[in-house]
């Protein structure tokens, strides 16, 4: 199931029409009719997955118009009914149809507050001052001026498991992401864990985890404590210093999400036009995304059929969606590019984040963070906008450097995120535990070294 190759198979027309219209119960009934027929194995997998995807969509889109209005009026000063339609029409508030009714994403208000300055300023309960952004901006200036910076991080992370009695006593299998080797990551140390672990992936494994097997209790926690260092050197890029011969690795299509569809191929041509310099081509792609793609919290990636295409068609997406569009367009025009993801960690904040790397001789692997760059551009921070093309701040824990790579040992059931692993995964032999897990992230220490 986690290979997801079946996403390249289209749904039968009648099922697709029901799903687009939000008539999920009718779609599920029709899917079961198809599953009882003699159909190809790939279509069977696609239909079985669609039953899962429908449930993901139901759980993510929870607010009716009336419920959304009530929430906005409780949180935002003098909020008027027509303003909700503005948020919907301007694509701040994500929605779908369910059973003929508009249902808004459970994160629609958080997203509107993040990307709409007027809504944020009218919050009845003001958000605390963003110390993380202030520190990051200071450190970015320091990197540009002094050429480098280094930080050491000490973190506790894990999963809280809340199950019911029917699965209690089974063996639980837990993956927790831990730091991996990367160009900026050094001196990784797994300090301790609250249970003895069964396996620790090698430091260069593309999606690195620590793995536990243990008898499942009704409520339990699996924790790991680790430290690492992040060493950043400033890349002062010169477009006239680019080598004539460039490498040919990390250029392949990897469907269903790094897809060289006719639409994306034509978009890449429209962006780079006749430009031959690979560094300038990468900058043109970065500029296109940061100037045109609106930041948006996303439904779970498992519910998106083709992520890079979604971003390009809808001109919206979160950090990972934007990074994947950057990677795909770069590969289409012959620029090696790849994924990095894990955590964004400052002394004041810890959370998930995704970004990209691209390769240009003679510089080697360079960074691109379109979501941070786009945020800087929206705030008229041209220094930050330029910095996040080619460079990166040090506040990152890298757990993954490959998009859509199997965990080791592989998970039997569908992962909560089949493509990336920033939080962790859990299952038993009998069932996945995606609905029973809660992430734990704790900052123990962050200091400059």
What can you tell me about this protein's structure?
The chain is α+β, with helices and mostly antiparallel strands. The chain has 4 domains: 5-61, no CATH class; 64-121; 147-232 and 405-448, Immunoglobulin-like (Sandwich), CATH 2.60.40; 236-399, Roll (C8orf32 fold), CATH 3.10.620.30. It is 34% helix and 26% strand. It has 14 helices and 18 strands. It has helices spanning 13-21, 24-35, 41-60, 65-75, 81-89, 108-115, 117-121, 131-146, 262-272, 278-292, 307-314, 319-332, 370-378, 382-387, and strands spanning 61-63, 95-98, 101-105, 148-162, 171-177, 185-193, 199-200, 209-215, 219-233, 294-295, 316-317, 337-345, 350-360, 364-368, 389-390, 396-400, 425-427, 437-448. The strands form 5 sheets. Strands 15-14-13-12-16 form a 5-stranded antiparallel β-sheet. A hairpin with a 3-residue loop joins strand 13 and strand 14 (364-368). The longest helix is centred in the first third of the chain and has 20 residues, at 41-60. The radius of gyration is 22 Å and the shape is globular. The model has no long low-confidence stretch (mean pLDDT 96).
